[in-house]
Each structure stands twice: as C-alpha cells, then as structure tokens.
Amino acid sequence: MSCSPYDRLLEIVHGSAAFELLRAGLSLGIFELIESGTSAPQALAAHLSIPPVRLQILSEGLIGLGLLEVDSGGFRNCAAIAGIIARGESPVLKTLVRFQAEIVSLGQRNFTESLLLDRNEGLVEFPGRGDTLYARLESDPKLQRVFFDYMQAYSHYMGKALIEAHDFSVYRRILDVGGGGGALAMLVAGAAPASEITLLDIDFARPIFNEYPAAGRARFHQADMHLDPFPGGYDLVLFAHQLVIWSPEQNLALLRKAYDALVPGGTVLICSSITDNDRRGPLMALLDAVYFQSVAAGFGQIYAFDDYQRWLSEAGFAKPRELRLPTWTPHGLIWARRPDK
Q1: In angstroms, rounded to a whole number, what is the distance separating the alpha carbons of residues 249 and 81?
Q2: Cβ(176)–Cβ(238) under 8 Å?
Q3: Least crowded by CB within 10 Å, which of 68, 273, 323, 338?
C-alpha cells in the first residue's frame, strides 16, 4: 500500500466518506458476515445482493481505512471490529453511528458559527422551540427515538463496566440525576436489589423510561435539575453522561445540589467520557466536544479528571477517587464523599 505524508490530512478532509464507508459496512452487516466465515468477495456480493463492482468500492475503502484486511482470497476484520463483535457490542456501535449520522453530523457542521457566535448554532438544523437539542427533539418523534436508542445502548454498555468497578450494594437510596430512559438505572437495580432508586429528569424522558424494565424498580421524579431542588436523604447521587453537557459554573451548582441531597457520609459518583489531565486524549473525548459545543446545549465539553476534582472540592466533598474504565469509549469514574459532619 502506498503511503503519503498527506494521508492523515486527506483522511480528515474526506472524513464524511470514511464515516459513510463504516456506516455502510455496519448497515449491511458485512463485518458480522466476515466474522461468521463468509469472507470471499463473491460470496459477500451474493449474500448482500450487491453488484461485485460496488462491493469492491466498499471493501477497498474499508481496507484503506484499516477496518478490513485481506486474508487468503477473502477478508478479515481488524482487531477492533472483531473484538466488538466477539463481545456482543456491535449494537452499541451501530446506534452510535446512527446517532452520529442523523443528529450529530447534521448539527455540528455549524461548529465554526458556534465558535464565532458563542452558542450552539447547530440547533438551526432542528425545528422546534428551546435552546437545547433535548427541547427541540420533543417536536420530532423520529429523531427523539434515534437519540434515546443511542443513549440507552450507550448507557447500558458503559453501565456494565461501571457496576463491575463500583459496589452499588452498599447504598440504600440512590438518586440518578438526568437518568433519561433508565438503562443505567436498570443495571444499578440489578446490582443493588435492596436499594430504592429515583430517576430525576425532565418529562421528555418519561415515555422512554416507562417502556423499559427500570420502571418496575425505579421511581421517576420529574424536575429540571437546574431550576428545581433535588429531593433529599440519599446515600448516593449519580451523574452519568450528564455533566459533559453543561458549563463549569452549572456543574459546580449541580454538585452543590448533590451535596445537599446526600446524607452525611453519602457519595456522589460521576461517570462519563473524561479526558486525561493533559487534555491530549483519548481521541474520542477530544472530538466529542464539538457536539457539545455546537449542538447539545452549547456549554459543555469532555472535561478532565482534575476539573471534577476541583469542582468536588469547591462543593465541599472529601476524598475524591478516580478510575479509567476498561472500555473502547473514553469513560471514567470519579467519586467523593460528603463529610460525616
């Protein structure tokens, strides 16, 4: 394969083409077919009902991107794709790619305008009222479903790693702030069967919550986390995939509300995409910031561990601890205690 010092630059210039090659491969199921043993070009074309010349375009592009490799007359998946399939995680990747295609890419093409205007200008792509993506999606049931399918799958994937890394059984009452459709609450309920779980979110999330098994164990508390007080008396306040949406000032205010909602000795736990303290990686975390600045609410980004350490200290918490989760996404945990007195 010929290489050029410009390849990395041109891969970015043609980034939408690279994305569509991956999306086509996932939509058609070519990676699963290869993993199951259907790897010869002729067999793949016949199985997918694609003309051989078009399969050639797809396969050559995927090979160029390093997602497929040539293997004795057929193809094999790269190690990353093969591992995701082996662990049963391809549905998560598919919902992530669909979310990127139908929501993220549409809005973040206004990133430059968002920088200049200091707001999430990507909302111009979504009809409706409100100054966040979540408010706009209320008027579009199709995109609302795309959003929640992604968040449910993504939360479930992250949640499996979370419950292996943190012992939820020690908590009697748990408040899940911004818990959405309840995918994480469902996992937490399984890990802490004796706990009482409350999911706090705006009414936008209630219909999805009611569809999922979490509704049988968790209680939905309708509230605006920024405007309304948190209910109190909890042993654990959980923020999952939440603080990345908001500004540092908003996050500090939310952590102070969490402090007030906890009993003395209670724990606040943050689980989300987190950058390293040098802000140079993981790469997905750096790229994801474009969405939060230009689409979601216009304030957020993927913060570093030391950002959370500072806010927790300012909010009055003690003994913060942090952990990078073993996921192919940039997830990490940080938790701290409200002092006993």
Answers
A1: 39
A2: yes
A3: 323
Kindly state the tokens that stand for 32: 């699963």
Other Cβ atoms within 10 Å of 232 Cβ, number? 12
Place of tokens 């509300």: 257
Lookup: tokens for 126: 């979504």
Low-confidence ranges of the chain (pLDDT < 70): 1-2, 213-215
- Would you state the structure tokens that stand for residue 89, as one six-digit string? 């995680």
* Predicted local confidence at residue 210, as pLDDT: 84
- Nearest C-alpha neighbor of 320 from the set 254, 259, 246, 241: 259
Structural tokens at position 273: 């995409």
Element (H, E) at 235: strand 234-240
Environment class of 149 (CB within 10 Å of its CB; exposed 0-12, middle 13-18, buried 19+):
middle
Angle at CA 100, nearest 5°, toward 148 and 145? 25
DSSP state of 273: E
Q: How far is CA 4 from CA 43, 58, 66, 339, in A?
A: 33, 22, 15, 57
CATH classification number, 7-87, choose in 1.10.10.10, 3.40.50.2000, 3.40.30.10, 1.20.1270.360: 1.10.10.10
* d(C-alpha 284, C-alpha 275), whole Å: 9
The token pair that represents 292 in the structure block: 């939060």
Strands 234-240 and 173-177: parallel
Is it true that domain 91-337 has CATH number 3.40.50.150?
Answer: yes
Q: Are 235 and 262 in contact (CB under 8 A)?
A: yes
DSSP three-state, residue 70 = strand
Q: Record the pTM.
A: 0.93
Predicted confidence at residue 207, as pLDDT, reads 84
Does residue 295 contact residue 107 with C-beta atoms inside 8 Å? yes
